[in-house]
Amino acid sequence: MSEFRAKFNIGQVVFHRLFGFRGVIYDVDPQYANTEDWYESIPAEIRPAKDQPFYHLLAQNESGSYEAYVSEQNLVIDESDKPIDHPGILEYFNEPQPGFYQLRDVLAH
Q1: Residues 85-94: pLDDT tens digits?
Q2: How is the chain split into domains, by residue range?
C-alpha cells in the first residue's frame, strides 16, 4: 500500500481550479470514498482519478453555501484571506485566522 500524503490540511481555505468556488477543508479521505453513481455523474473529460486524496469542504460560491467533495488535483490554496461564509463553520472550527481555520478542540484527535 502506498503512503498517504495529503497536500492540504484540515482548516485550510482552498479554491476549486475548474469551478471557481472556495471552501474550508473539514475532512480528508486518502482516496476516493464516495458512491460510484456520484463518480460517474462527473463528465468523463474532467473526471479525476480515484487514487488521490479527496477533501470534504464547507464551500461557498455566488449562489450560496454547500458541502463539496473535491479531488486534490482540482484544488489550490486560496490566498484571498477572505472568510468562508458557511453556516457549518462554527460546528467544526473556532473563529478563523486569515486563510486558516482551527479545528475545535472537541473535534481534534
Answers
A1: 899 999 999 8
A2: 13-92
